[in-house]
Automatic annotation (TrEMBL):
Ubl conjugation listed as a keyword: no
Any one of the GO CC terms: plasma membrane
Listed name of the protein: Carbohydrate ABC transporter membrane protein 2 (CUT1 family)
Domain of life assignment: Bacteria
Lineage, opening ranks: Bacteria, Pseudomonadati, Pseudomonadota, Alphaproteobacteria, Rhodobacterales
Keyword Calcium in record: no
């Protein structure tokens, strides 16, 4: 007969090994090609194709000559690739009385976009920093007014701003348009920066205050180095909005200072001569190239920043 002590040890050992012998535990691994995944990825592919199809048509049309375009097959790739439509759209197409293409409008857009983006982001970041970390009397009212301004239709403010810029002596100038873009970008950018700065650890701010750091020292040495994602978000939003703007450009400037979008409208809607669809498509792609490049270069930071800026309200 076996010893009771050894029998007890054997039973205890068997009980200890039972979980290991019973196999892996936890949720069952999902199949890669389940119905749910097929539906989700299938929907995403269909939506992506829906949005990419017009871009494909624009690209292939811009690389065709007019005789090939007249055949009517807009989805067919070009038989003979030509970049002449791109050259004409950039340097030769007529935009009103001038026939220098989009080149003049491109540099006008650069002169409008760069200072507008820098000015609006600089002011809005300081506003958001002050509203998040330096509570002053009337801060809530100030923030409410800013947010209210984000929902005012631009068209309501067109004529009052015309009068204001005229009285300031900057109506019809690039300076006036830069000021308008900076003002209208302020509310939404301030909201983004305030939410982002609120999401940062408050202990950093308190520790800096204990060490004797002031308003600007904390902003420049602590907040800015930690805020690259939200600055990228603000830059992409402002570059996209200002570069693609048509309404303010046509209202607050004059023909010699028209931005690229206004010149594109003049090219596409021209009623003189033959309708050159390849030139129109090339001009449209050239106009949208800058915001697309900026977004694709900094897309990851954009996603990080927009998520961080939406953590707190």
């Amino acid at each position: 007969m076996s010893d009771p002590a050894s029998l007890s040890a054997t039973v205890a050992g068997a009980d200890a090994m039972a979980p290991a012998l019973s196999g892996p535990r936890g949720p069952k691994p999902r199949r890669r090609f389940s119905r749910r995944n097929v539906f989700i990825y299938g929907t995403l592919i269909v939506v992506a194709l829906y949005y990419l199809l017009p871009l494909y048509v624009m690209i292939v049309t811009s690389l065709k000559g007019m005789p090939e375009i007249r055949l009517g097959n807009i989805f067919a790739p070009p038989v003979e690739i030509t970049f002449q439509p791109w050259v004409k759209a950039w340097a030769e197409a007529c935009t009103g009385l001038n026939c220098d293409g989009l080149s003049r409008g491109f540099w006008n857009s650069v002169r409008i976009t760069v200072p507008s983006v820098i000015l609006s982001i600089a002011i809005a970041s300081v506003n958001g920093y002050a509203l998040a970390n330096w509570r002053f009397k009337g801060a809530d009212m100030f923030f409410t007014i800013l947010i209210f301004g984000a929902f005012i239709p631009y068209q309501v403010m067109l004529y009052p701003l015309v009068i204001l810029l005229r009285e300031m002596g900057i109506y019809g100038t690039l300076t006036g348009l830069v000021l308008v873009h900076s003002i209208f970008g302020m509310p939404i950018l301030t909201l983004l920066f305030r939410n982002y700065f609120t999401s940062l650890p408050e202990e950093l701010f308190k520790a800096a205050r204990v060490d004797g750091a002031g308003f600007w020292q904390i902003y420049l040495q602590i907040m800015l180095p930690m805020s690259l994602p939200i600055f990228v978000v603000a830059m992409i939003l402002q570059v996209t909005g200002i570069w693609n703007d048509f309404l303010f450009g046509v209202v607050y400037t004059k023909p010699d200072l028209y931005p690229m979008t206004v010149q594109l409208n003049n090219i596409v809607n021209s009623v003189q001569g033959v309708k050159e669809y390849n030139v129109n498509m090339a001009a449209t792609l050239l106009t949208g190239l800058v915001p697309l490049v900026i977004y694709f270069v900094s897309g990851k930071l954009f996603v990080r920043g927009i998520a961080a800026g939406a953590v707190k309200g």
